[in-house]
Amino acid sequence: MIDIHTHVLPGIDDGAQNIHESLEILQALADQGVTELVATPHIISGVYENTSEIINEKIIEIQDLIRENQLNLILHSGAELYCEPDLISKVKKENLTLAHSNYVLIETELQRFPDNFEEILFNFQQEGFRPIIAHAERFSPFMNNIDHLLTIVNREIYVQMNSGSIMGVFGNAVKYLALEMLKIGCVHVIASDVHGLQKRPILMKDAYDLVASNYSEKLAEILFYENPKRILNNEELIHNFEGYFDERKKPGSLKNKLKAIFKL
Ligand SMILES: [Fe+2]
Question: Which of 109, 112, 173 shows the shortest CA–CA distance to 137?
Answer without folding.
Answer: 173
